Amino acid sequence: MHMDYYCSAKFTDLMIHVQGRLLYNCCKAYPERVNLDWLEANPGRLFHTDTMLEDRRLMLDNKSCVSCHHGCYKYEEQRLTSTRQKYINDTKISDPHAPIRHLDISLSTDCNLTCMYCSPEWSSSWQKDIEKNGDYLLDGVPVKQNDNWSNLWAKMKQKSRGIESRFFAQILREIKLSTGLQSVSILGGEPLLNNQLDQMLDYVHGKKITITTGLGVSDARLRKVLQKTKGMNVTFQISGESTGELFELIRHGVTWKNFKNRINMIEQNGHKIRFISTISNLSVMGFTEFYNTYHEKHEIQINHLTGTSWMMPHVLDDRSKNNFIDSIKNKNNLPEFNNITRMIDKKPDDKDRINTGDYLKQFSSRRSIDLAFLPVHFLEWCGLRS
User: Hey, CA dihedral for 365, 368, 372, 378, is it positive or negative?
Assistant: First the structure.
């Protein structure tokens, strides 16, 4: 198929995984690992490694680059939505050495949540689950595991924290050198758990700051961060897309009651809140209620799910799809709902239907979750109830 391979995010964005010493030249790109000796000898090159420069030159020649096939191209080839598509109308940048504008930084994988579509690469709780209980098996094949990441994780547990601190110090230096840097998004794991958050906030003071959180922390911990950020240009970007028991299944590890209370704490502190709603087959069943709860006070941004085919929005029974469409009859002119309607307008194949049931069964069994609250027609459709 004919494709335009260019993406402006490749020229403006960088994601850093501190704990793994990984660089993602845009949020969906396949990572490269940092050579610390090289970085220390080449100040200001964190955003302009040889690999990144070559990828940008390929894009300018309208050629596919391997790192982007992993997160975007392969989905577009299947006529599925990719993250890259939201940058299609951005101004084209022709300089491979263009300055970084947006930095995403994952301080560590430390996280006490196991959100259903997350992975060991971004959550220590996911890694511990797989170490304790083994891989999740769909079609007899392990999923929710990344062999390269598992090997890296084992090495990280054995090495001293000195290497990680050395890399963090270099990142702070690179931030000082990045004169075009406009915004910084601090990620996890769960960044509110990380003790380096205070120092990072000091270095990016004056820039537009976003803290992405699942709010799976104690009220005391959140209160401490709110005190630190009082008066700063900070937006709390909060993961959520459903309510009640469905929320607690999808965002396992935090209760709906505590989540709402912590939203109130942030509101009272005067910070802006933006919700990031990842739309999966499960969250389609609860998104309308979530939207009704929060849209009048806060922005709600749709996130496209990739990487877990059995949880894609269209992998849903017809009755659940029709229930969603019925629930938005007075909202069908809103882009959020038009977008989801397009997502679900595809027939799922039997493999993904069966895998949905198998994955739910394994996920809920490991956490002693009763799935009886889910609609009977959905449970029957994916083989969890006869």
Answer: negative
